[in-house]
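Take a record:
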Amino acid sequence: MDLATLLPTRLRLATVLVLVAAHTCSATPGKPKKESKSWTPPEFDESLPRSLTVMEGEPAALQCVVSKLRGRSVSWIRQTDLHVISANDLTFTTDGRFKVVIDNTTSSFTLEVAEALRNDSGVYECQVNTRPKLSRAFNLSVVVPAARIPGPKELFIKSGSTLVLTCVAHLHPNALSTVEWTHNKTKVTITGGRGGVSIHTEKAGRLLSSKLSVVRVAPEDAGNYTCQPDTVSPASATVFIVDEDVPAAMHHDSAARRGHFTSPLLHLALHTHLVLHSASSTFYSTCIAAFLL
């Protein structure tokens, strides 16, 4: 009986493939093909940047250029979850923000993110399907823009003097050049009933700076001051109004300098300094030192 009639269809197909492979191998004895000797692996363009930082909401593009591909595929893989984003021009993600732009003339495979989010930060691998696989890692950092008020978070200002606060922030390209200042959650305006308030805001490129000035401060000017630029997180500082000049050591953020020195203790020490102002310098120094230890 013919062997072919005894074998299932799949087994017959496998047998044929094995026989063909054996015939192919036996038909090409001797040395490997000449072109295999001259084969060189694909090469990455090492001159391209491997790290990119963008602000949240901005587009991001990671460019990978590979020469000498000879038909091999190029994939983009996200290392945080080993998700294969693309293979050549095929995309394997439901997130429409991601796409791969291929330029065959330069052998460029660019991973583009339309609007980068903070959780898009991480390492993305451009991989060529050779054996062993060749790859290059690219780092994407997506930062959330935030305003800041340089200097200590707690300021002690003498009554009757001028309070000056400066707020700086890096803005989105399409952000407005506006800053809203609030005092204890109430909007600060230059036309308010208090008077003596000025706000100067300017923008240089994407850097925004806003300066708030309040002249002849009084106890009611104490409290929280917050600046809120457009599209970025706000920044705050707390202002205390005192009746006397404050020692330089107290004018800085003591809580940051001394982990055990809390704000209430600082207030108590300051109060003691004011009460004992008329006492002898020796007695004053002793009390202040006792509270600071």
Helices lie at 3-6, 9-27, 34-37, 254-257, 263-275, 281-292.
